[in-house]
Here is the input.
Amino acid sequence: MTTGAADKDDLTDMPLPSVPFRSSVMQIEPQWIDYNGHLNMAYYNVMMDRAIDQLWLQLGIGPTYMKERHGSTFTAEAHVRYLREIHLGDPVQISVYLLAADEKRLHTFEELRHATEGWLSATSENITLHMDMKERKVAPFPPDIRARIQAVVDAHAAVPRPVGIGRKVAMPSK
Here is the structure.
């Protein structure tokens, strides 16, 4: 998990994330390449999780939030689509759309793209739960965090939805 100055209690001075949120550019690590010569499927999740951590910092729900306010998030559901191979040396950047939220859940959609050429490699759609870490139970977001999340959801609602949201795992119809 990433740490940083954006993870703080006073969110009023912090600007909202970009729409959609864009992660820092990341590099494929050599040990992530499998015997097929491309990024192993598990590491797509690692990279998308790193992007989510960057967004969480901007929402005020990163490591400092966990330490000081005893709240965190757990992924409850994920659907990953692998669309084009990524190889060693390919720079990647992840766009994160915050599609919806309620008092306890976040619905996100991530697109992993080649950072310089722009083509789409993978997507991940997720439901994330807010946790009270003292009780280790799902719990509502605090009002200040909930308001910030809603502002980001509202901003993201104004941009076109990416292709692939709401897909399910199924055999193609004939």
The longest helix spans residues 41-59. The longest strand covers residues 120-132. Residues 21-157 form a domain with the Thiol Ester Dehydrase; Chain A fold (CATH 3.10.129.10).
